[in-house]
User: What shape does this take?
Amino acid sequence: MRALIQLVMLFAWGTLQAQEAAALQSRAKKVVATLCAPEMHGRGYVENGDGLAADWIAEQYKAMGLPPIKADYFEPFTFNVNSFPDSIKVELDGNSLVPGVDFLVDPSSGSASGTFELVHLTADAMMQPERKATVMGSLPGKAACLHFPATTNADTLQAYRALERELMHYCPVVRVASGKLTWGAAQEAMPYPLVDVASDQLTEASRTIRIDVRNSLLVKHQARNVLGTIKGKGRKWIIIGAHYDHLGQMGPDVLFPGANDNASGVAMLLSLADHFSKFKPQHNLLFAAFAGEEAGLVGSDWCAVDRPINLPDVKMMLNLDILGTGDDGIMVVNATEQQAAYDLLVKINGKRRYLPQVKSRGPACNSDHCPFVKRGVPGIFVYTLGGIAAYHDVLDKAETLPLNEFADLHFLLRDFIDQLK
Assistant: This one.
């Protein structure tokens, strides 16, 4: 009889967990869909996209009953960022290219309008001082078309980038995109634009390019981190962070929705906030939705400087970024420096069998944990592995983001937060 009762209880628990998992995934999909909607303008720097997202997240905190740590939920700061408010047009030899599909402009691009003869350049020509001087003298009024060999060597890539930036002071620059077209954000603007063109569109036979690009450098762009708290049983803090900003729009015609990067992380942050608003945690929790990550970790850096809480009181900074898949488990960045935290994640996952694996990686200053770690705060960064590969492109959409391991990761993270000593 006891065995039967245990079996019934196990079945009931499993059913309840399955129901909760389905509800968690459903709510996460709604959060991602909202943050990726055209009305949010890619949560970037055109049409106040990041500001609209900040307001929406603050509304979610308020609805959950999370108290602010300051006078309100916002931690304001400013930074410079380049933007492209107007439609961008590019033609190669009279053939119109599709923005976001056939080409992108470099995020640090300046403005240019007109038809330019292409001057095809090789790396060899630009690496030899005498030949380079001759080339540079021929560029005014034309466009430099770069044909640099593909490489993964960091020093070579740095040299290429330095040449590209130098050329952007003289004329428009065109290059064949390496792999798929991906975009970014920049805090500065060069005098001329750089256009990345898909490899099937640009050849050594291309002769002219028509460019119509207008940039707008936003000086002291007003941004806000969104901070909410939950009081725990002790005096120590856990910071749970996720950046909500994305790349926004390259003009009105190209939207970067940013579903995996990082509407998924915001969905997890809000999911954990909702849970711990109902079940009191051991430690105090600061939920930090950061702005300005894509422009260089600007929001998290300001939070670490502004210090809304005393950093020596922080037990752990848990950074959530790119959580939309999970077919192959998760990666824990800085695990080698936070071995006890990593071992706890592995132990919980081994017992509960939430995810296929919990992998370990060393330190990397590649997301919002970094400014805190630099200041002595223990921190880890969790991201999912496997599944779709859309990243910093127009295909990172809500409708194609599976969130297939979202609930299991939620269970793992809340167990981790509960058990962190």
